[in-house]
Amino acid sequence: MSVFDPKQVSVLLNGTQIKDWADGTDVIDAKHNADAGAYTIGASGAGVFVANADRSGTLTLKIKQHSADNAFLSRRLAQQRGAIQSFTPFTLDIRDLLNQDVVTATQGYFTTPPGFTRGAGHNPETWTLVFQVMDITLEKGFGNA
Questions:
Q1: What is the pTM of this model?
Q2: Under a CB-based contact definition with an 8 Å cutoff, are residues 96 and 54 in contact?
Q3: Is 85 helix (H, G, I), strand (E, B) or coil?
Q4: I want to staple 18 with a disulfide (CB 3.0 to 4.6 A). Which of 11, 36, 40, 100 is the partner?
């Protein structure tokens, strides 16, 4: 039997914990931007695998409206846009403390800033960052023999 507890997931951007998640199954979404490589098969049926050097990745975070995490990210976005020479690119460290899954990444920048939506319900803010190098390590998880 597998076990998962969203409270046991730690997300750090440059050492600052992000934790005020919106509701949903995809509030933390890290994925590679390219395939690991491609296999090309010739007319004779023989093939060659070409490894892809692109190890970049994209992180999408969905955070509750009016969260202190949004204020932190907004300040960092303003710095990236206004003074990129003094902007420190993001490092990323995501750890599922229960299941030991890990995502690490370096050289991160904002790509798509959040919009502004308000109404009669909650409107989470979606932040998108891209990283030059991202590594994802998935383990078998707690409770699996």
A1: 0.90
A2: no
A3: helix
A4: 11
Helix (H) or strand (E) holding 68: helix 68-82
First to last CA, the chain: 9
Residue with tokens 């992000």: 18
- Return the closest-CA partner of residue 90 out of 6, 8, 18, 9: 18
CA 62 from centre of chain: 10
pLDDT (tens digit, 9 = 90+) per residue, 6-36?
Answer: 888 999 999 999 999 999 999 999 999 999 9
Could you tell me which of 51, 9, 48, 52 has the C-alpha nearest to residue 33? 52
What tokens were used for 2? 């597998």
- Rounded to whole angstroms, the Cα distance separating 58 from 109 reads 10
Residue whose tokens read 């992180």: 59
Q: What is the pLDDT of residues 34-68, one digit of tens each?
A: 999 999 999 999 999 999 999 999 999 999 999 99
Q: Is residue 57 a contact partner of residue 29, using CB atoms and an 8 Å limit?
A: no
